[in-house]
């Protein structure tokens, strides 16, 4: 079975999101490769200037302490300007070398991986996470799972809140660099979390399943359009509103009313540090609730 992007299996929401992530990764890779190279072109004449100024390599281990001293000298006396310029030039040169040693290899890695997973989507981390969630043993199992999820996404009973999709069986949350899926019947704890960062209120729906996995849904990540056409790799990201978070929780709980929705600091701490014990406890409570509701 072919696994190219021409395959209809990979032409739905999952395949499109893989392409978006690859486009973003490709751009980041290009930046990581070319930024240090461009910096090197700029730094080349600076190296010549440092030679003219007579700056030796003995300065290199002391760049940052000397930077502080240089600033002080500059403020106290105009003669400190030369020392200050020496430190600035050495700092630029050192950062350029660091860029060559670190960012260029990382950029090349991003370019190779994004190209590979464009040709073979099952190599992408998103496909691997879906394989894990669906317990797919081989490539055929993975494609059947993806096809099933895509069919459920297109079904009439599928609901979309922002960019989050809730199908008959799955919770699907696309983020900037990933796409997370969770089997609805495996969810044991679904809670609403409020927070605030730099004065901005954050509202999240956090789903926890019986396998110890969690999905924190707090953003709408949608494909941005340009001139009426979708732009691959360009995503519009906004925060979920409180109403959207409530709607996501209500949809899931209406289908699985035995899911625990209470939340407290103690429960969150236990999930972090005593997860296996908490899963066992929540599972017992859910089994009891299910029997009562279903009779």
List the helices and strands and how they pair.
Layout: H1 13-53, H2 63-76, H3 80-119, H4 125-134, H5 139-154, E1 159-161, E2 164-166, E3 170-174, E4 179-183, E5 187-197, E6 200-209, E7 214-217, E8 219-226, E9 229-239, H6 242-255, H7 265-273, H8 275-294
Antiparallel strand pairs: 1-2, 2-3, 3-4, 5-6, 6-7, 8-9
Helix pairs in contact: 1-3, 2-3, 4-5, 7-8
Could you give the count of β-strands?
9
Report the span from N to C terminus.
Answer: 45 Å
The CATH architecture classification of the largest domain is: Roll
* Strand content range: 15-25%
What is the helix fraction of residues, given as a range? 55-70%
Q: Order of helices and strands, N to C?
A: HHHHHEEEEEEEEEHHH
Q: Total number of helical segments?
A: 8
Main beta sheet strand tally, sense and closure: 4 strands, antiparallel
Query: How many individual domains?
Result: 2
Would you tell me the structural class of the helices and strands?
alpha+beta
Rg, please? Answer: 26 Å
Low-confidence stretches: 1-6, 56-67
Q: Tell me, what's the shape? A: globular
Mean pLDDT: 80
Search tags:
295 residues, alpha+beta, PH-domain like, 2 domains, three-stranded antiparallel sheet, 8 helices, 9 strands, 56% helix, globular, disordered N terminus
Describe the structure.
Mean pLDDT is 80; it is low at 1-6 and 56-67. The chain is 56% helix and 20% strand. Helix 1 (13-53) packs antiparallel against helix 3 (80-119) and helix 2 (63-76) packs across helix 3. The chain is of the alpha+beta class and 295 residues long.
């Amino acid at each position: 079975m072919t696994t190219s992007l021409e395959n209809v299996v990979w032409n739905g929401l999952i395949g499109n999101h893989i392409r978006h992530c690859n486009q973003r990764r490709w751009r980041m890779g290009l930046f990581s490769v070319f930024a240090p190279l461009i910096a090197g072109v700029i730094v080349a004449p600076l190296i010549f200037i440092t030679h003219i100024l007579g700056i030796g390599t003995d300065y290199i281990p002391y760049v940052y302490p000397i930077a502080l001293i240089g600033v002080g000298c500059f403020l106290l006396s105009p003669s400190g300007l030369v020392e200050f310029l020496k430190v600035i030039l050495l700092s630029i040169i050192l950062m350029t070398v660091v860029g060559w040693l670190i960012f260029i290899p990382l950029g090349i890695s991003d370019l190779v991986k994004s190209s590979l997973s464009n040709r073979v989507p099952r190599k992408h981390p998103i496909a691997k996470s879906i394989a894990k969630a669906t317990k797919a043993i081989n490539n055929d199992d993975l494609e059947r799972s993806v096809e099933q999820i895509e069919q459920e996404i297109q079904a009439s009973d599928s609901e979309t809140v922002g960019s989050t999709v809730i199908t008959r069986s799955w919770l699907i949350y696309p983020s900037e660099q990933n796409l997370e899926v969770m089997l609805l019947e495996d969810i044991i704890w679904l809670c609403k979390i409020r927070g605030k960062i730099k004065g901005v209120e954050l509202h999240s729906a956090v789903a926890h399943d019986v396998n110890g996995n969690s999905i924190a849904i707090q953003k709408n990540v949608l494909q941005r359009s340009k001139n009426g056409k979708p732009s691959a790799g360009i995503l519009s990201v906004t925060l979920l509103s409180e109403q959207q978070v409530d709607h996501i929780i209500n949809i899931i709980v209406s289908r699985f009313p035995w899911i625990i929705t209470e939340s407290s600091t103690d429960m969150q701490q236990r999930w972090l540090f005593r997860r296996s014990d908490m899963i066992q406890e929540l599972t017992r409570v859910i089994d009891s609730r299910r029997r009562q509701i279903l009779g």
